[in-house]
Amino acid sequence: MAFSVKFNDVDLSTIVDGFTAITRNIGAGWTNTVQPNPIIGADFTQNSINSKSITVNFIANVKLDRFTSVRKALASALNVKQPAALIFDDDPNQVWWAVPDGTPTLDESSFYQAVGSITFLVPSGVSESVETNVLNASNSGGQLGTITNNSDGSVDIEINNTGNLETFPTIEITNVHENGYIAIAGQNGAIEIGNRQEANGATHALSEYLYNSNSDLSFSKFKDATGTANPQNSGLGTNGTISFQSDGLRFATQGTMSGSQFAGGGMKVMTLPADSNGHVGAVNFYSHFNLFAWAGAMGQTGILQILFTDINDKLVAGYGITKSDMSGNSAKCSFWVGGNTPKEYTSFGFETNNAEKNQKYPNNMFNSSTGDADFLKEGANLGFYWYGSRKTTYVPELADVEVSKVYLYLGQFKGSNKFINNLSIRQVNLTKNNVSVWKDVPNRYAANSKITVNMNGKDTVVINGMPAIQEKIRGTEPFSIPPGRSTLKILQSTWNTTPPIVQISYKERNL
Questions:
Q1: Spatial distance between the Cα atoms of 146 and 175, rounded to a whole number of angstroms
Q2: What are phi and psi of 157, to 5 degrees?
Q3: Residues whose CB is less than 8 angstroms from the CB of residue 86 and which lie 6 or more positions away in sequence, other chains included
Q4: What is the CATH number of the domain that holds 87?
Q5: Domain stops at, among 114, 129, 144
Q6: Distances, alpha carbon 144 to alpha carbons 47, 160, 161, 307, in Å
Q7: In this structure, are strands 18-23 and 315-323 parallel, antiparallel, or unpaired?
């Protein structure tokens, strides 16, 4: 079998007729920094790993078009704008992120055979494994390492990093018991998340979970509100139906509409459950939800709303997706506020694709694998999540108004017969904040909540799919795992003696 060199998913051995030499050398080279010693020689200060060059030599036999096709095919394969994967046949689980460097050669002086060379530059100077190592409870005790749960709720982890360089893992921690604090300590550093002092119970303002659709998958606690006026816009008819379909609540029927209504659909409503004091309604309120908006074809349309009202059905705030574009793929996400002057506070346009590869404007908010968003009311302050941050506004007349009901609406425009393929409310969680009672505190990390710590990523801390870098305790930073065997220790709130479920993922790195 011919030796294979793959670059940017192209097997270069299908273009040339063989590789005659590969120069990878040992490591990437090191640059040492010293400063003069006043007595003799110099004192070592530090060193760093250089970028790395890799050269491959090849032969190309004559073809009918002589070597023209080889030149063109290689030029096309090598033309990248950023480092791409370079993989060699003799080390198939190692990838070098490389770019061509200098001018590749092709000596055509022989009529029968040309020889050439390509030099690649690896800016990082290192390779990483193609496969990601995953250590969890199912393979604990194997070659990747061992996870040990302790009676005090802490977890000891031995990791076997077989690369010859440090690596930066992603650590997923699922809280089996409610929890307020996580510390991850290793040989190269420590990172802390949450609040070391968070108590398990006391008399103070706390948050109470009122509803979680994870335990009500068909949204059965939301009741049909057929014929009830839409709290945000009476132009949206509610004589249709919505129902649970596969992944969440979806549009079912449009229903009849009056002459003044421009759309129709179905609506459901829930009156908030009473808190632990027996009170219904929340001045300070939080809702996390997951939405899906992906059109299967241009021109599909639809409306989705999550509306929060007072006990008399007067709008407090709303979060919605509207696609009225009957020819293209454009939609908008809107935030509505009530009060003395109900209005659309702001909106953001997006394309209803599924964030597929090479999309010019990828839908990174509401695709099949994401969709997390939220709404927060703190007195008169209203906040709506959009692309990594919360957009906030202040409505003074809503300071003491309680959210008491939640409406879910899905509808279709009167003039359109093409409903968007995937418009779904997949999850809704409702929380009341600042409840003053004595009880076991619903801590900041609920049971089954997931904390993801990426030691080498943009979003260092992610909680339940939402970026949460603010949860990282100041002064603690991400760190690496050294080569060889090393240990990590995970600590929780001192009152939590139930170990979490832990999974560590990492790629080996080598010189």
A1: 19
A2: -130, 125
A3: 5, 6, 7, 54, 95, 96, 97, 98, 120, 122
A4: 2.40.30.200
A5: 129
A6: 30, 5, 7, 48
A7: unpaired
Q: Which of 120-137 are b and which e, b meaning 16 or more Cβ less than 10 Å from the residue's Cβ?
A: bbbeebbbbbeeebebee
* CATH code where residue 257 lies: 2.60.120.200
- Give the global pTM: 0.50
Residue tagged 């070592």 (tokens):
44
Q: What angle do CA 170, 176, 182 make, to 5 degrees?
A: 50
Do 235 and 265 lie in one domain? The reply is yes
| Residues 272 and 402 occupy one common structural domain | yes
Range of the domain at 217: 203-440
Q: Is residue 419 domain-shared with residue 491, that is, in the same domain?
A: no
105 and 151 together in one domain? no
- Number of alpha carbons in the 13 Å side-chain half-sphere of residue 158: 9
Measuring CA to CA, which residue among 327, 332, 331, 330 is closest to residue 298? 327
pLDDT one digit per residue (tens) for the chain, 511 residues: 468 899 999 999 999 989 999 999 888 888 888 899 888 988 888 888 889 999 999 998 877 676 888 889 999 999 999 999 999 999 999 999 999 999 999 988 877 888 999 999 999 889 999 999 999 999 999 999 999 999 999 999 999 999 999 999 999 999 999 999 999 999 999 999 999 888 776 665 678 999 999 999 999 999 999 999 999 999 999 999 999 999 999 999 999 999 999 999 999 999 999 998 899 999 999 999 999 999 999 999 999 999 999 999 999 999 999 999 999 999 999 999 999 999 999 999 999 999 999 899 999 999 999 999 999 999 999 999 999 899 999 999 999 999 999 999 999 999 998 999 999 999 999 999 988 765 566 788 999 999 999 998 667 899 999 998 899 998 889 999 999 999 999 999 999 999 999 999 999 998 8
88, 162: one domain:
no
Same domain, 162 and 267: no
Q: How many CB atoms lie within 10 A of CB 213?
A: 22
Task: Answer yes or no: are the C-beta atoms of 309 and 315 closer than 8 Å.
Answer: yes
Q: Which two tokens stand for residue 269?
A: 């409503």
What's the total number of domains in the chain? 3
Give, in order, the Cα–Cα distances in Å from 437 to each of 109, 189, 209.
88, 39, 14
